[in-house]
Amino acid sequence: MSDPLVVPERVLRSRTSAKWQQFEPDVLPLWVAEMDCDLAPGVAAAIHAVIDRGDTGYAAGETLQNAHRAFAAQTWGWEPEGAELVPNVMLGVVSLLRTLLRPGAPVFTANPIYPPLVEYPRAAGFDVRQLADGIEELDAQWQKLTGDFPRAAYLLCNPQNPTGQVHSAAELEALGEVARRHGVVIIVDEIHAPLSYVPFTPVIPQIPEAFALQSASKAFNLVGLNVALLLRGPQAPPVRRAPELISAVSHVAEIAHSAAYGQTQWLADLLAALRVRREIVARFLARELPQVGFATPDATYLAWLDFSAMTTASGEPVTARRLVAEAKVALSSGRPFGRPGFLRLNFATSEEILLEALERIAAAVR
Ligand SMILES: Cc1ncc(COP(=O)(O)O)c(C=O)c1O
To answer: Does 83 score more than 90 pLDDT?
Structure first.
């Protein structure tokens, strides 16, 4: 088994994307959701072949839909039909809300949650409300919906960023039942689905009225070559495709993602390596930082850490900014996710970098 997460630090520091560029060279960056891996060999070969052919025109055909269907069948025993390509997940979510809902309609989501799932719909003029977890809470809130808007939407992130929680088939079924009763459309961001350590249940077979968005971009580290699939359940409301999004789909991304969905051995190796990193984080915290709240994630390479019971050595609350200054480690602040006091650590890196970062954090807090 090969470990895709052993790229030398010298190579990582030469990368020009956000993760390794945002901070000074003495900082270890475990923040934004990029992985410290090389491309899967089949993906690199496909992109090289694009360049050799000069194949940089418009997207065409169903290559990516077919590759995704084969991957979904093999991975989850589900064959999605009628997927449409969108330039990325978040543009897909916002365009879907625009075609399904009236301007200003309520859009519900969880707390904590990936910040753009709140910020982008809000910027598009929807009334975004973050609710506590739990089906009873959703039922109670949705009961209060007035007749002003014929439809509302619920944005679920499954697996959840930042907690790494994976919702079970039974939970999805219960959600579908309550949403149906209150006229709420379910839209699920399933971008992290291939990175699940437990069995993952796609939403559409459980809730046939739902929509889902998937992409190979997180699991295969392809955000710089972005594309996503918008999946419509067989009983979901009809939607008008936003024409400006169709021509915005990158053909090169389509080729790269089609190749990625065939790289199942690479993905298995990646998941094995991520399990090792997840275990390193869990053991280190239990031994050295037992006051930090942590629940082992079911999916993703993100650890959601509750530092609210601790301070830095200088007596300050443990914030992302203070850890950069005092530990020379960059984590993501919990504040935009809805939880100040929490920090999100990206463990998709080498064992050496991960341990060094954890040791620096332990030395800087009490
Ligand atoms: C839950 C979630 N959704 C969406 C995205 C971004 O996806 P895209 O770049 O395809 O909009 C991310 C990126 O980290 C994410 O974690």
So the answer is: yes
pLDDT digits (tens, 9 = 90+) for 151-202: 999 999 999 999 999 999 999 999 999 999 999 999 999 999 999 999 999 9
Distance between CA 366 and CA 363 in Å, rounded? Answer: 8
Indicate the helix (H) or strand (E) that contains 286: helix 264-288
Best substitution site from 19, 89, 113, 300 to test ligand 1's pocket, by max atoms within 8 Å of Cβ? 89
Query: What is the signed CA dihedral for 109, 113, 115, 119, rounded to 10 degrees?
Result: 10
- Confidence at 314, pLDDT banded by 50, 70, 90: confident
Relative to the CA of 157, which ligand 1 atom is closest?
A: 1
95 lines ligand 1 (CB under 6 A): no
C-beta 190 within 6 A of ligand 1: no
Ligand 1 centroid – CA 94 distance (Å) = 12
Q: Tell me: the pLDDT tens digits for 324-346?
A: 999 999 999 999 999 999 999 99
Q: Hey, where are the domains in the chain?
A: 9-40+264-364, 56-260
CATH of 9-40+264-364, one of 3.90.1150.10, 3.40.50.300, 3.90.79.10, 3.40.190.10: 3.90.1150.10
Q: What is the CATH number of domain 56-260?
A: 3.40.640.10
**Cα-to-chain-centroid distance, residue 12:** 22
User: Position 249: which residue type?
Assistant: V
Cis peptide before 115 (omega within 30 of 0): no
